UniProtKB/TrEMBL annotation:
Cited PANTHER family: CHEMOKINE-LIKE FACTOR (PTHR22776:SF45), MARVEL-CONTAINING POTENTIAL LIPID RAFT-ASSOCIATED PROTEIN (PTHR22776)
Alphabetical keyword list: Membrane, Transmembrane, Transmembrane helix
Keyword RNA-binding among record annotations: no
Entry keyword Zinc: no
Species whose genome carries this gene: Pygoscelis papua (Gentoo penguin)
PROSITE patterns: MARVEL (PS51225)
Ranges where the MARVEL domain occurs: 5-125
GO cellular component entries: membrane
Transmembrane annotation, as ranges: 12-31, 37-57, 69-93, 99-121
Listed name of the protein: CKLF factor
Bilayer topology annotation: Multi-pass membrane protein
Localization per record: Membrane
Length: 137
């Protein structure tokens, strides 16, 4: 268990993403808005929680067959694109106040997804080369 991960910037952003996505989900469910809004929010909560657990339990070190930070960047970028489209529709259409609030939480979640991707990209690019440091002959 990596007890320092929740206090790190990446861990704090993951926690914030999960909480804001849960708030957006609750707003969408309470307003009885379309299923796509709530589905995107609940998927974001689940996927973010799974990545948080992956890093918190150090499973990324045990399952080294996939480069997990890159997969996390792809998740953040794809989530940001979907959140941009869906939450802009929610804010523009604003069938009621719950949908509007969920859309605003979704746009905040969009910003957190971009911040998470930037933090991960900096970690990948600043940690240096991976693997063996021997020259090819």
């Amino acid at each position: 268990v990596d007890s320092a991960f929740p206090r790190s910037p990446r861990g704090a952003v993951k926690i914030a993403r999960a909480l804001v996505a849960a708030a957006a989900f609750l707003c969408f469910v309470a307003s009885r808005s379309r299923g796509a809004y709530a589905a995107l929010a609940v998927m974001e909560v689940v996927i973010t929680a799974l990545f948080f657990l992956l890093y918190f339990l150090k499973l990324d070190k045990q399952m080294s067959w996939l480069f997990w930070p890159l997969a996390d960047i792809f998740n953040s970028v794809i989530a940001a694109v979907f959140l941009l489209v869906v939450c802009l529709f929610a804010v523009i259409i604003k069938t009621n106040n719950g949908t509007l609030a969920g859309g605003v939480f979704g746009l905040v979640l969009l910003v957190l997804s971009v911040v998470d991707a930037v933090l991960l990209f900096q970690k990948i690019s600043l940690d240096g080369p991976r693997g063996r440091n021997t020259s090819a002959k």
